[in-house]
Amino acid sequence: MPGDIAIVLDGSAGEGGGQILRTALALSAITGRAFAIHRIRAQRIKPGLRPQHREAILAMARLCAAEVEGAEVGSNRLEFRPAARVAPGEHVFDIGTAGSTPLLFQTLCWPLALAGGPSQLTLRGGTHQQCSPTFHDLALVWVPAVARLGFRFDLALQAAGFYPEGGGEITAAVQPAHPMPPLDLRHRGTLEEVEVVAMVGGLPFAVAERLAARALRKLRDIGIAADATRVPVPARSSAGSHLLLVASFERTRAGFGALGDGGLTPDRAADEAVSACARFLEGGAAVDRYLGDQLLLPAAILAASLVPPPPGILPTTRYTVSAVTKHLLTTAEVVKRFLDVEIAVLGREEEEGEVRVQPPGAGVEVLSMGN
User: Fold this and answer.
1) 327 carries an active-site annotation
2) Is 184 among the domain residues?
3) Rounded to whole angstroms, how far apart are CA atoms 75 and 124?
4) Spacing of C-alpha 48 from chain mean position
5) Are 299 and 292 in contact (CB under 8 A)?
6) Contact (CB, 8 A) for 81 and 65
7) What residues contact residue 229 under an 8 Å CB cut-off, 6+ apart?
8) Among candidates 366, 342, 365, which has minimal Cα distance to 355?
9) Digits of tens for pLDDT over the chain (371 positions)?
10) C-beta separation of 145 from 106 below 8 A
11) For the chain, where are the alpha helices, taking DSSP H only?
């Protein structure tokens, strides 16, 4: 690795997947600090860059005029040197496969939110696939959560893209980040409702009906009454189904989803989502395992005062999470390589824990109890 790059990352560390790269790209564009990464996605079945990672690199490079080396599919090393501040604008990016547009958006949105003006994105590829958040995960759970940190995103699904064909499209309006009171989500409050959202694209609507009916029955078995919405989603070149349970509490919400296997196994998808919801309800955490690591980067942006805090307010974030995951721990380590912030993750791996993100030198006792 070159001696002129101070930040050198090991892509096999921790969870060893694409999240290391995506976090580094966002923070490099925000801070202007170059980075190099080797052994990219070394712990995956197909290591190295895949098309969706290559598109994230090239998209971010376009936003910040970065000099890039090693951005070929299959590459296990990358050098990324941003040369300009990210400016607001309108952009179209096409992954070209069923790669995740939600993950691409979660990479690009942070520097655009700090660019000083509104931006518009059109992203093409996959919108609902395994091992990544779906469009509806973002729209119904993640967007409301990061709004409480001062980040406003408006998402719209133009076409669903299921694996393996893809062909989906989402549009997103990114508003400039604005100061908000410190977020304290150590307690979720009382469960208010569980909503069942069953959606289908390119398949008979009966698949959505079956998904919803199975989920409602399984929820009743554990003592939860729920409402269901059946949604046909537009699909251009792919077909699939998705079930999302949204549990709304007094102070937060959590999501539990599963994809149908080509519409053939809606019972399995419903059982998987309800089981995940039931496990969460048995605990006391305010944030689910996936949202837990997704909140870390915006919380660190605030702790680094990249969004000026309200006068007299210490920009700190605290929340409890249903499971301390490798994704969470790995993201924390990458963030600390770029930003001067303190991150504490309390708890054992795969058990409930607490996350604290604060400016350097801030004592735990001064963390806000509000919001």
Assistant:
1) yes
2) no
3) 23
4) 21
5) no
6) no
7) 195, 196, 197, 198, 212
8) 342
9) 455 788 999 999 988 789 999 999 999 999 999 999 999 998 888 899 999 999 999 999 999 999 999 999 999 999 999 999 999 999 999 999 999 999 999 999 999 999 999 999 999 999 999 889 999 999 999 999 999 999 999 999 999 999 989 999 999 999 999 999 999 999 999 999 999 999 999 999 999 999 999 999 999 999 999 999 999 999 998 999 999 999 999 999 999 999 986 555 788 999 999 999 999 999 999 999 999 999 999 999 999 999 999 888 899 999 999 999 999 999 999 999 999 999 999 999 999 999 999 999 876 433 332 33
10) no
11) 18-31, 51-64, 101-113, 135-137, 143-147, 206-221, 266-282, 289-294, 296-303, 326-338
Clarify whether residues 276 and 198 are in a common domain: yes
**Residue 334 φ/ψ region, left for φ over 0, alpha for ψ in the -120 to 50 degree band, beta for the rest:** alpha
* C-alpha dist (Å) from residue 339 to 296, 297, 324, 342, 347: 12, 10, 21, 9, 23
Domain stop point among 157, 178, 199: 178
Which range of residues forms the domain containing residue 107? 87-178
Q: How far is CA 252 from the centre of its chain?
A: 16
Q: Which three-class secondary structure string do you get for 114-182?
A: CCCCCEEEEEEEECECCCCCCHHHHHHHHHHHHHCCCCCEEEEEEEECECCCECEEEEEEECCCCCCCC
End residue of a domain, out of 129, 144, 178: 178
What is the distance of C-alpha 251 from the center of its chain? 20
* Domain presence at residue 183: no
Close Cβ partners of 81 (under 8 Å, ≥ 6 residues apart) = 5, 34, 66, 67, 68
Contact 189, 210 (CB under 8 A): no
Say what the pTM is: 0.94
Tokens 């054992």 sit on residue: 348
Of the listed 128, 136, 242, 327, which one is catalytic? Answer: 327
